[in-house]
Amino acid sequence: MTPNDNLKTYSLKEMKNYKIHGRTDESQYPLPLFFNGSGIEVNATGSELWIDVEVDCDTHEPWIWTALNGAFMSRQMLLPGSYSICLFRSMSPEAVKNVKFFRELQAMSEDNRCCLLIKGFRSDGSFLPVSDRRFKLEFIGDSITSGEGTYGATEDTDWLAMYMGTSRNYARMVSDALDAEYRLVSQGGWGVLCAWDNDPRHNIPSRYEKICGLAEGEMNERLGAGKPYDFQSWKPDAIIVNLGTNDASSFNQPEWINPVTGETFKQHKEPDGSYNQDDLNRFKQAVIDFLIMIRRNNPDSHIVWAYGMLGYDLTFAITDAMNSYQKTTGDINIAFLQLPSTTTETVGSHAHPGEKSHARAAKVIIEYLQTILEA
């Protein structure tokens, strides 16, 4: 299937009426979509609409999802190349259609060639302004926030791009319920202090202040991923942090050894199974330091630390750190929120929270944020 010959091509460089979702370098053309939950939204008339994309990858193919008039319409893998994807056709030309095109796959720190670029659209209609939503929400997390496990059968245990999905994760559910735009910063396996395998290089705070510090390599640098993020350009009403799950796992894993320098790193447990106090304090300090960083860049946002979808191991450590931060800084615009743990009935693929688990977590966050944002 190819676009009709009577469609006009619209480059993003010449278009005015569209909305960009997610952190990106808006000066770039084509426009890079770095993060899961990043995308583009248009209001379009006409009978047919296509989007022109440029795609590349090495081992992890980007996945996308589309919505039409607020309803989920499609989800698919994108292979390398430059081509057009049909968003709708044979529709009543006069009606205005709201169309969303979103990246499903997280920023891939393990594939420096993975990229999804938007060049423009092809249409026989026109484009109208896209209105702002009521609130802005930022979600910071790991594989849970990347939606890993929201697609696939419970017996599927492969670590694959197709099992990750923003279209079914709690961040989108919360945002839709509250009429909010959302931005995500997430990476599977990463933590506040270190990754699940004790790798101290893989912590979200070290990448948070760049547009997309998770995307590395020459190509991503050229696309602007390594530029400082302009926090003034998009001010979230609330920031939801869902980190700590991988930090808890690190206490049960072997020490990490840097393959180049031989440096080692390990979070330890005592012989009785309790956490080594020095290592636990090191984690707590990482939580405090990240809260300081978030607040410095987002002075007016309400900060919520939400935790528990894959266990409550570090609940007390997180709340202790938050209390210490609050006592030291006097910042009362923060809160801790315990989320329902995933059960055998709500688990998804790769032993991660499934769609039902995300829905349970979203309900808790929605009810809480309603009391804060709508007060």
Question: How does this structure look, described?
Answer:
The chain has helices spanning 170-178, 218-222, 245-250, 277-297, 315-329, 355-373; strands at 8-11, 19-21, 31-32, 39-44, 49-56, 63-68, 71-77, 81-88, 97-103, 115-123, 127-128, 135-141, 180-186, 238-242, 256-257, 264-265, 302-307, 334-338. Strands 2, 4, 6, 7, 9 and 11 form a six-stranded antiparallel sheet that branches. Helix 1 (170-178) runs parallel beside helix 6. The mean pLDDT is 97. The chain starts with 7 loop residues before the first strand and ends with a helix. The chain is of the alpha+beta class and 375 residues long. It contains six helices and 18 strands.
What is this entry, summarized?
With 375 residues, this protein is of the alpha+beta class.
Which features characterize this protein?
alpha+beta; six-stranded antiparallel β-sheet; globular; 375 residues; five-stranded antiparallel β-sheet; 20% helix
Shape: globular
Total number of strands: 18
Overall mean pLDDT:
97
| Alpha carbon gap, first and last residue | 50 Å
Tell me what portion of residues adopts beta-strand conformation: 25-35%
Which consecutive residue ranges, at least 5 long each, have pLDDT under 50?
none
Alpha carbon gyration radius: 21 Å
Q: Which structural class do you get from the secondary structure elements?
A: alpha+beta
What proportion of the residues is helical, as a percent range? Answer: 10-25%
User: Strand-and-helix sequence, N→C?
Assistant: EEEEEEEEEEEEHEHEHEEHEHEH
